[in-house]
User: What shape does this take?
Amino acid sequence: MTKIKMLAFDLDDTALDGQGKLAPETREAFIAAAEAGIEPVIASGRSFYSLPEDLLDIPGVNYAICSNGANLFNVKTKECMEAFFLEPESVEQIVALADDYLDTLYLDAFTRGIPHSDRRLLDTLLANDKISEHRKKYLRKTRRAEDDIRSFIREHKTELDCMNYNVFDTSLFEELTGRLKKEVENIYFTSSIPELIEISFRESGKGPGLRRMCDYLNIPLENVAAFGNADNDAEMICLAGVGYAVANSSQVALDAADIIIGPCWENSVASAIQDIVAADGFVG
Assistant: This one.
């Protein structure tokens, strides 16, 4: 039996439904966990200032691992507790590689939790049938449009939490990740959806981010239950005392999990949390 003292939960297609919404049942489950002395911690690829406001307002949700572990935030005070930034040389290499794919790749850049996107991406969203309607709304709502994203990146290259390649020709995915491995130094990269490559400093990742949050809160990793659905969640799921994957997960996340629960649209994370609370925090 494992005593759970922290819940580390991914958002999109895990704790949130397929439309990016937080169900009332999930909100109540987080509150119940906090009242039972279990710390609910956001663990997202999203930057801090693109987290859903209705999630940040939940009583007891006080901390967030953001930008795939590049930074840790106190949710209530908006204080960045710890941050890693891409090295300037790495930033130049990431941009140089992207320049070889000008017509098929769009850049995002995140400065201290604030997301910025190539205006070309935002201007072409409506016509892009490779992006879900939910993701179109999310991008329009959260991104600051930059007319010249490359100039913006170079002006802010010492304060970038992470960068994204938005790649809608998914046949290029392996080519791009192969080139990142060979041509760009001191980076960590991962993916949460097939059209996105997320790049940050080498010590980032949800796994290392979870480890640092556990150190900060003085909670052992074996007392964590982690929930996820994508490749970028797999290390976190493995590190936690108990790792959960929703049924709609990637194969990498499913293989990493100790327990597979129902899909995100059935409020499966809420049900699992309520079961943990009902068992006085024990799993197993």
